[in-house]
Each structure stands twice: as C-alpha cells, then as structure tokens.
Amino acid sequence: MLWAIFGGLLSLALIGRCVYNLYFHPLRRFPGPKKAAIGAFLEFYYEVVKDGTYIWEIEKMHRKYGPIVRINADELHISDPEFYGTIYAGGGRRINKDEATVAAYTVPRASIATVDHDRHRVRRAMLNPYFSRKAITNLEPLIHERIDSLFEKLDDYHAQGTVVDLEKAFSALTGDVITAYFYGSHGDHLSSENFKNEEKDAAVGVIKMYHLARFLPTLANWMKKLPIPIVRMIHPGAAHMLQSQIDVRKVITESMKTKKQTPRSRSVIVSALTDPNNPAEENTIERLVDEGMTIILAGTETTAHTLAATMFYVLNDKKILARLRDELAALAPGPPEKYTYSGLESLPYLTAVINEGLRLSHGVSARLPRISVVEPLHYGDWVIPPRTPVSSHSPLIHYNPTIFPNPKAFDPTRWIKATDAGVNLTKYIASFTKGSRGCLGIPLAYCEMYLLLARLVSRFDLTLDGTTVEDVEPYHIRLTSYPREGMGEVRVRIERRA
C-alpha cells in the first residue's frame, strides 16, 4: 500500500514537472520539440543509451526550428558560427560553467571543473605563464628529442614489417611531452610495446564515463570509493582513471618532498601549484591531483587524435602530400630536426593543413554549456534570461556549409584562398573553445603539430593500411569525438624516404 502511494506521488510530481517545463518555464517560448522540453529524457536516451549521439538529433532540430533551439528543459543550443564567440568568450561578461556538466569530470578542484568565473581566473592565472608561447618555445628541444625517439621506433617497425596505429604512436609522444613538462620526467611510453600508454587509457576511461557521470554524478563518486579491481569489473575505463589518480598523487607527493633537490623542481606541478604566493586553499594535495589529472589527460589525447586524423587526410590525397613536401623542401637548407615552431608556422600550406586537420578532428566536441551570470544574452529577437545554460557543438560549427563549403572535404586550399581574400577563417575554429576558459595548452598543441607533421612527412613514406574516412569521422560525441564503434585506427605501413 505504501509503495503504491509513493509511486502515485512520484508519478504526480513527474507529471507536474513536465507540465511546468512545457507551460510555465522561463524558456517555454523558445523553439524546439516538446519531447525535449519536458525534461532530460530525450537527451538521456541519445547521450547515455545511444552513446553520445544527441548532437545529430540537435542538428535535425536546427534544420526544423532554426539556429536557436531548446534541447532540454533548461538549456538552449545555438548553431551559429558568428555567435559562438559570444557564448564562450563573453566579451567582458561574467560567465560561469554549468554545474551539472562539470560534476561529470570527477575532478572538482581542477580549473576545468571550476564553476565560478572569478575563482577560475585565479586558478588559471597560476598556470598561464607555463603554457605561454614563450614557455612552449623553450620546450622545443624536448619535443624534438621525443620525435627522434618516435622515429627510432618507427624504423624498428619498418624493419619488422609491422603495421602501426598512428593515434597510439602519437599518444605516446604527446603523453611523454606533457608528463615530462608537468612532472620533470616522463614514462618513456615511446619505448613501450605497441606504444602502451596509461595516460591515454585513463583519458579514454574518463571520456567514456562522461555522459553517464553527467546524469548520475553520485554514481561516479561512489565508484571512486571502491577498490580498483571491483571497479574494473564494472567499468574498465573508470578503473584506468582511478589508477591514474593514484599515480598522479604519488608523483605529486614525491615532487613536493624533493622539489629543491631533484630535476622535478622544474616541473609545472611544483613551480606553479606550490607557489607560496597562491591562496592556501589552492596548494592542497587534492587540488594538485585534480589539476594534474586534467592537464595530463587533455595534453595526451586530443592533440594525438588531431595529428592522427590530419595524417590520414594527408596520406589519403597524394596531391596534398606532394604540395606539403614541396613547401617544406623550399625551406632554407638544414636537417628537419632543426625545424622550429616559429619557422614552420610561416609556411602557408602547412598551416592550412593543420587548420583543416583541427576543423575535421573537432577537438573538444561536447556542448560544454556556459551561463551568463548577470546579463541576459541577446540573439536576434530572442532575449535569453541570465543563468540559462547556453551551448554550441564545435562539429556543427565546423560543418557549417556557409562558412566551409563542401564541409566534410579536407581542402587546405580553402584557407589559402580565404587569406588571399582577407577573410579570417581561423575565428571559426572551435576545437579549443574560446575565451578565458578555452584550452590551456593551445601553444603546446600547435608546436607539437607543426614539428611532428613537418618532420614525419619529410622522413617517412607512410601508406594507409585499410583505414577509411569512416575511421576518422565523428559519430559518438563524448567529451571529444569518436567514430562508430569498432572503427578509429589510422593504420599505416612504413617506408624510409630515399
């Protein structure tokens, strides 16, 4: 009897909430399907059950209802390349992150999960000097050394006739670079068998948990309290993440104990996040572990994916590869290992290839809503109330045919033509989001892409081995984009250039 009463009351509450969302909610007049407006049910189905495919339903909504749609009870989505910067950069407005979204990151003390605008500025200011253009230029010797190590491994695979998955290889390289910079030493993932990389495994684990954790954050926090072997049986990806947190804690603890006696004193984690000038609450072990996790995982996975996708498109079109090599060959004489970031970024075609690779690999692809805390947003005739989550998907910006005609084609010349016409296409690249909450490691990502792509195509002849465009096109949008299940390897055979 009590269960029947409880069930009846719960049903009434649910129906009442749906009625409120449809007819009394502040967003009730915004366009969009009623099945989305009544709550989070439609979103849950496509994001959790169908594994990150709500973006394609949102795309259909925009075709029917226009550039602004209500995609759940509380959130608006705007698909307009010209308005993307207003959502994310803010133009001086105080912008918070959405609490429900950042709860899914399971690193509550990291900058990336900081909701409040002002507190985020404090945390970001601690790290910005270490990821500036000047700081990253000083990292070029380390990046070149890791590229040398990668090439030695590729020579070995060439001798063995082994097919290589480029994304695994690039993840090993980017993982070594970011861990060396962050901790003062790296795990030499490039020497491991088949480029085994625990940071990549942990990143994939976090990303695969994202949507479920967004709807059920208490589940993610509960799993963090379980022994790792048990978590591994429930969710292998979560187990990788938890093990990575343990490893990060050990390294940070060791770094803090020996920061004046060892090379680790040169690491970002010690130099930036144990500064006595920081507020005391920002120098706790828990905060350092959370920040360390996000920087390591972000610095490993996204750049490697972009590099692998870009190499696929370059190798898939011999004309693109030939033109790229011709441009590199026209540089002042000198070995490729002497390439510099500043020298390479002056090359228009290489820059166009990188921009096109960023566009079609999408980078951070999840919606990541932003909230204007005080001021309403104005979009056309619509006035969006303050504290309304507003978002935009980077793939829908990158696939906009008005900005990028024939949007799914990899065409570096579109960037050359735009530059010649005085059009700034780069403002439509949303791979790193925009504004003060955009990706911390943009200069590092560009430096790695310029140096590795230039040296790789100069040194090796790579041939695709069964990889097709479906292996790099996005389908599942978690935090970043993934192809359909069972696809995603950029496999190549290796030959040394004469």
From TrEMBL:
Keywords: Heme, Iron, Metal-binding, Monooxygenase, Oxidoreductase. GO terms for molecular function: heme binding; iron ion binding; monooxygenase activity; oxidoreductase activity, acting on paired donors, with incorporation or reduction of molecular oxygen. InterPro entries: Cyt_P450, Cyt_P450_E_grp-I, Cyt_P450_sf, Cytochrome_P450_monoxygenase. Its cofactor is heme. Heme binds at C439. The keyword Coiled coil does not apply. CDD domains: CYP58-like. Pfam families: p450. Belongs to the cytochrome P450 family. This is Cytochrome P450.
